[in-house]
Amino acid sequence: MQSTHLLIEEPVRMASILEPSKPSFFPAMTKIVGTLGPKSRSVEIISRCLEAGMSVARFDFSWGETEFHQETLNNMKVAIKSTKKLCAVMLDTVGPELQVVNKTEHPISLKADSLVVLTPDQNKEATSNLLPINFGGLSKAVKTGDAIFIGQYLFTGSETTSVWLEVTEVSGDDVVCLIKNSATLSGQLYTLHVSQIRIDLPTLTDKDKEARNYLSKLGDLNQTQIFAKIENVEGLTHFDEILQEADGIILSRGNLGIDLPPEKVFLFQKAAVYKCNMVGKPAVVTRVVDSMTDNLRPTRAEATDVANAVLDGCDAILLGAETLRGLYPVETISIVGKICAEAEKVSNHDLHFKKTVKYVGEPMTHLESIASSAVRAAIKVKASVIICFTSSGRAARLIAKYRPTMPVISVVVPRLKTNQLRWTFTGAFEARQSLIVRSLFPTLADPRHPAESTGGTNESILKVALDHGKATGLIKPHDRIVVCQKVGDASVVKIIELED
């Protein structure tokens, strides 16, 4: 029997699927973090990555010398100047990482159903039967039957560059394992992960502590935000406490996928992203388009995975091997941005807004009330953008928390401050730190224009913001704009309708 109407409401017009994606200055409101490395460290490639939509550059300190990363950073500064695109820097510290040490750097072939010994004696040479590791306490932490995974980019189920081991015997300090799949390990260092076992290593290594002490001595750098990377069951069980202390959360799904059964990973992603959304802290999702490390197009499953991360509410997508050593870093950033933009078009912003308002409850703080009102007004009048004047960035982040359907131009107005030796302007830090927050697009205002106005409006600085919006194609004639700014001691939300 033929039905004359659809039994379910059609959320997306089928015809719209065949319409080509529209290019824009901001390809997506979801941010893209690209890891810079051997294939993505030249001025030319970094410039192209910035043009393609990368807003945060990640430096992975688990490999490479400091000098190597410094050179890359210098190249990045040149690329930022030439492209005139703001970019933040994410420094990924080593943390408590177990590693296999292969001093010869010759590839090591491991055959399924044979045995391999893990030994803490790093003077021994790595072979197909013996792997030296950087930790003496492994034999005390594991027991027969435990699962261990080793590889440069950890086991996903089909890789031949990672290996799955099962502990068969503990002999003194050595651990004897049965190899479950054939694989070839190449390079100098491979990560070792023991499934669901707590390894008693300090969270901060000496190298990490040096970095933190160094930051705290460098004046402005003590404002550096700290994101917590959740990559095992321990991080999951203490998630609420970690979220309270961290400035943002990175869901390291590669490692989590080993500690959790495959059918449980998506549940953790949804729960963790929701909690981050409700408290207004950025949630970053990793391991999305692994196949693009070697291929020009993602798989259908990967493309769907990126879209679902956006629909779940993540702020940013983090690309690792895809840009670090991948063959197509620029194309990967571009296609991930396009998928994010399409997912944003069908995101249920209204439901998200209601959930956030309900979670925050009443009475709201003054700032929270202003931020939610700005978003509500922008949605009601179908504004093309929200313009928010801020000096700390907090007001803009609160607006973004309510997930507006339109971009938020965050005009960061510098403040003059002194340490009694010299006068400096704040602002650059605050602007860059919002580059990982979904829908926030910061721009630095001229320090001569105050963020707070004693009159009814602050025309000169507003004109600069509007001109920026027009130049980027976000604002067109007859558009409505919602502006959020301080006037004297009060915060004001107003709606502007542009003429020709």
Automatic annotation (TrEMBL):
Metabolic or biological pathway: Carbohydrate degradation; glycolysis; pyruvate from D-glyceraldehyde 3-phosphate: step 5/5
Catalytic activity: pyruvate + ATP = phosphoenolpyruvate + ADP + H(+)
Lipoprotein listed as a keyword: no
Single GO molecular function: kinase activity
Alphabetized InterPro entries for the sequence: Pyr_Knase, Pyrv/PenolPyrv_kinase-like_dom, Pyrv_kinase-like_dom_sf, Pyrv_Knase-like_insert_dom_sf, Pyrv_Knase_brl, Pyrv_Knase_C, Pyrv_Knase_C_sf, Pyrv_Knase_insert_dom_sf
Signal peptide: none
Occurrences of domain Pyruvate kinase barrel (ranges): 30-211, 212-333
Cofactor(s) needed for function: K(+)
Keywords from the UniProt entry: ATP-binding, Glycolysis, Kinase, Magnesium, Metal-binding, Nucleotide-binding, Pyruvate, Transferase
UniProt similarity note: Belongs to the pyruvate kinase family.
Protein name from the UniProt record: Pyruvate kinase
Species of provenance: Rhododendron simsii
